[in-house]
Amino acid sequence: MTTHSKLLLTALGLSLSAVAYADGFDDTQPASAFYINGVLTDPLDALTSSIELSLAWSQMSQKVPGIRFGLAYNPTDPKGYGDLIEAIRQVGSDSKGAVRGILGVGPLSARALDILRDAFVNSMSLSAETQGVIANHLSLYRDRFAQKHKVILVAHSQGNLFALEEYKRLDPLEQACTYTVAVATPSNEVPAKGDYVTLKSDEIILAASALRVSAGLPPAKPGNVDPDLLNEAATDNSRGHAFVKAYMVAGAKSRQAILEKFEQMRELSRTEGTPCNPVEKASTLTIYRTFGGPITPIPIGYSTTTTNVNDGVSTTTDFSDPTFQGLANYIGEDRRSDTFQACKIDDRWIPKHSVRVGELKPDPLRTQCSGQGYDEVDTSDFSVEGGTLTANFTVDGKSSTSCDDTVGLVVNKTVASMTNYSLSTMVINLETGTGSYSRTLGQTSNYTHTYTGSDGLKTSVSNSTTTGGANGSWSAARPEDPLANTRIEKYTQPLAPGAEIPAQCQ
Amino acid sequence: MDWFYTGCANRHPLSAGKSIRETWPRGAGLAAVCILISACGGGEDGSAPPAPPEAGPSMTLSASPTSAEYGSDVVLSWSTTNASNCAASEGWSGEQPVSGQETVSHLTASATFTLTCTGPGGSTHQSTTVTVASLPPDPGEAGNTTIAGADSDSDGVRDDVERYILMNTSPGGIRQTLIAQAKLFQRTLVETPQASMLTTMARNLECLYSYSPRDARGQSAKLLAEYLNTPERVAAYLNFAASVGAVTVDIDEPADFAKSCGPP
User: Fold this and answer.
1) What is the CATH classification number for the domain harbouring B104?
2) Are strands A303-307 and A314-318 parallel, antiparallel or unpaired?
3) What whole-number distance in Å separates Cα of residue A361 and Cα of residue A399?
4) Which of A180, A380, A455, B77 is geometrically suited to a Cys-Cys bond with A191, CB 3.0 to 4.6 A?
């Protein structure tokens, strides 16, 4: 295939892509594109480069929405300007002319050009002072990640060293949302989701690469775009290195290559479904539901009838009668609690649940009875819709008691088992942490009481009761606010870079 | 016998051999009534009365605007009656039609424009003056002894740079934007570096790009070079560039660049 054909296809591909975007752009995958300037680049030049990039992309893509362009300015270490100022002094007293030359709007002498080239080449490194710049840029990217943006970096020259270092400091989720177009990179690396464009005629990169090799480092990425007449005709004093005056010359192959790579990165960022919300990836909502304090697990109105097998006399015991002293036998402490958790990844809440098995602790004063209880909680029925979690769960509370009790002259031996079941529904707004709680109850109890009186007569009573449906008696025994014993905690702090994703979110 | 027409502000002798009808302009029939009243009797010999005198020309001349920026274009408008030819002098020159408009381009100094028009009844002339804002004085080398330089009108733009802008641009948006950018450049040299300066710089650039994407970069770069005309000023600007920190600046959508121009 001829070069001409390739160019034609490239141009065709780009224009087709633009048409596809215009036809139905998916702006649910927005992106931020940042230009990172290289060393010895003043703010005006850096801003101009950012604007030219934005303009070129806009013209090519027919104003595709969904990309916010910006400049991540990389200020040159003041010490780095020493060579530049020297280059200007070499020009003589004509500072105005030197500045024009450096900015590419006027001529420079060969001597000044050499000094300028050396100034660039000698500055192709990161110094200790750059840490603040890197931290600032990372903060910027994370801010955009939090806005669900993918980040596309377009770095030029030494700015690529920043892009590379910053990429390495992002955690894997953040890296998955970061794309890079490296222009005139002095490095031998490009971030994973990235590509590069270097003019084969870029004297600065050629010299910087040679300097790296002499220092025992791998050479810079080799030039991959042939210069054409448009590059050579540009009034460029950067020896083929400047972003606008060398690489982005209208109609030049290098400009086309940069826009093509950018297009590829944009397309990748648009189609990849990678969660791009690392800041909130650790967001969890935890709901602790506790049953504190004493409870009376006896339905009001519940009664038992015992019949003396010797004389046939029946006695009805009303458990809700305040005069009934035996009620104390049934007072215990309910220490059951549940813990619900939900994780927020991207914009989805994922219901998680961990169960803290409860304990029904008998009244410690009634040491003569031994008993135990536990809950089996089925929490599989979760649904989340629109940020609202609805949890339907059943609790099978099982307890058994065996004790001897002496009331007067009667020795009361009780063997009881009880199964409490409840069907509860908790509806929680995951964003605000507010919600409601309701449940229906049921109970199956089996008691066997054996009374042995002082008269030696034996009384044996067996009882089996089943209640179900909306038995309000237990609810009445609970706090009126169904969520009063519910504590909700929400953690939205971002994890430190590189931290593990919480297990409950995995 | 001399004929006069009266009842008007002036009396003009009518030219001999011309009838009144020929002299009066069309549609002036009512005016003829008062004139005939004083045309007492006929000629001594009973012949037709001599023609009334020709009316002298009158004219209006105006300029818009009358007060202008350096390098402005000024439109001169005029109209005449009873004139057959006109000639321009002072701020302009040459033969002019008896009515019309003419644009005087790139006015760099105050000027008076005079138009003299002549007709059968005589001649008249009128002048109008356009006041043009002058350039600030050229500070010369004396203006380079400090980083701030000379700013005689205290508008925030160094005099030599203001002269450069005024002499190389026409009044309008580009000039206004370059003035704004120049004020910002001045601040970068003499004030503590602030991140907001980059934002302002970006908005000015976007505005320039909205006028001419092809020229915006060159205009800005040349303006900066004008500002950085001494090594000390270069050093001050580089200090700003190094000290402003890792600033981030959003770039507007190209379609919205013109919004960065703000109110005129």
Assistant:
1) 2.60.40.10
2) antiparallel
3) 10
4) A180
pLDDT per residue as tens digits for the range B75-106 = 999 999 999 999 999 999 999 999 999 999 99
Instruction: Please state, in angstroms and as integers, the Cα–Cα distance from residue B11 to each residue in A362, A457, B20, B85, B180, following that order.
Output: 133, 158, 14, 24, 61
- Strand ranges (DSSP E) for A346-408? 348-356, 360-362, 369-385, 388-407
Between CA B14 and CA B20 the distance in angstroms is 8
pLDDT score, position B168: 95
Give pLDDT tens digits for A229-264.
776 666 667 778 889 988 998 889 999 999 999 999
| A11 within a domain of the structure (yes/no) | no
Helix (H, G, I), strand (E, B) or coil at B97: coil
Subunit contact B248:A73, Cβ cutoff 8 A: yes
For residue A498, tell me if it sits in a domain. Answer: yes
The whole-angstrom distance between residue A42's C-alpha and the CA centroid of its chain comes to 36
Q: Are residues B161 and B202 in the same domain?
A: yes
Task: Provide residues of B within 8 Å CB-CB of chain A.
Answer: 197-198, 201-202, 205-206, 209, 213, 216-218, 220-222, 224-226, 228-231, 233-235, 237-251, 253-255
Cβ–Cβ under 8 Å, residues A403 and A416:
no
Continuous H helices in A25-69: 43-61
Give the range of the structural domain holding residue B40, as residue numbers without chain letter. Answer: 1-54
Contact A78 B238 (CB under 8 A): yes
The answer to whether the Cα torsion of A242, A246, A251, A252 is positive or negative is negative
DSSP state of A220: P
Judge: A50–B238 Cβ closer than 8 Å, yes or no.
Answer: no
Residue indicated by tokens 């092809």: B214
Q: Where among B132, B161, B189 does a domain terminate?
A: B132
Domain housing A451: 283-505
Query: What is the pLDDT of chain A when averaged over all its residues?
Result: 66
Per DSSP, the residues of A162-207 read HHHHHHHHS-HHHHTTEEEEEES--SS---SSEEEE-BTT-HHHHH
User: Residues with Cβ < 8 Å from A300, sequence gap 6 or more?
Assistant: A319, A320, A473, A476, A477
Q: What's the pLDDT score for residue A143?
A: 85
Looking at the structure of chain B, the number of domains it has is 3
